[in-house]
Write a structure and sequence with these properties.
Blueprint (H helix, E strand, L loop, with lengths): L1 H25 L33 H23 L9 H6 L6 H18 L10 H11 L2 H14 L4 E7 L5 E7 L14 E7 L6 H4 L3 H8 L5 H12 L3
Antiparallel strand pairs: 1-2, 1-3
The structure holds manganese (III) ion.
């Protein structure tokens, strides 16, 4: 009788262990190392080009207001929100990994600060297209570059209200497209869509309203003319070593 009980306990125990193991193995995790750049949380970085550098696709007036007012306000409000807390000594990656425990002010302004830094860097002119390595990964995951572009554009166009669309490298080493609301991003523990950001587009109205008004699809189409593929390809190669 005792032996039978023990046997049942063992069987149930191993079934539970096996279920737990499989469940955890299947659950989309976060990459081992999400730190892609030295990100000084106490410094507001310069825009990497002139306000008119992305004309006519993104106009100079929009860039000036977007960078110097919106982005700067996120930075200033983030600094104010972490003042006097342990987060002052944390990295942005540590803050995002535990954002569920932080205030809404840290979440919204920290995301707003970081997301724009990545966005400015993945815009620019003069690059010819994705690297061979990234092209092969895009073809493998999405079938073709055109399919990828369509899926990413759809994520940007269909994000309801304000937010961001992303191309990320997942913890499984695969490319994935998704979007996040408000100033959330795929590095935040609260985000169901996780991964290392490779390419992003800001679809808040402040990013396009002066030139495109309500025509978000026209802005998304114009975005493809000013993607800095050299930077996106560089991020892909770096991220591959971190998952
Ligand atoms: Mn913005």
């Amino acid at each position: 009788m005792k032996n039978k009980k023990l046997l049942i306990t063992l069987i149930l125990g191993s079934a539970l262990a096996s279920f737990t193991f499989n469940y955890c193995a299947d659950a989309p995790g976060k990459p081992k190392n999400t730190a892609m750049e030295t990100f000084d949380i106490h410094e507001f970085p310069a825009l990497p080009y002139a306000y008119d550098a992305l004309e006519p696709y993104i106009d100079a007036r929009t860039m000036e207001i977007h960078y110097d007012r919106h982005h700067r306000a996120y930075f200033n409000n983030f600094i104010a929100a972490i003042k006097g807390t342990e987060m002052e000594k944390s990295t942005i990656y540590e803050i995002f990994a535990g954002i569920s425990k932080a205030s809404d002010a840290v979440r919204n302004n920290g995301g707003g600060f970081y997301n724009h830094v990545i966005f400015w860097k993945n815009l620019g002119t003069g690059s010819s297209g994705p690297s061979q390595e990234l092209t092969e990964a895009i073809n493998k995951e999405f079938g073709s570059f055109e399919n990828f572009k369509e899926q990413f554009s759809n994520a940007a166009k269909t994000r309801f209200g304000s937010g961001w669309a992303w191309l990320v490298l997942t913890a499984e080493g695969k490319l994935a497209i998704g979007s996040t609301p408000n100033q959330d991003n795929p590095l935040m523990d609260v985000s169901p869509f996780k991964g290392i950001p490779l390419l992003t587009i800001d679809v808040w109205e402040h990013a396009y309203y002066l030139k495109y008004q309500n025509r978000r699809p026209d802005y998304v189409e114009a975005f493809w003319s000013v993607v800095n593929w050299d930077e996106v390809s560089r991020r892909y190669t770096q991220a591959l070593g971190q998952v």
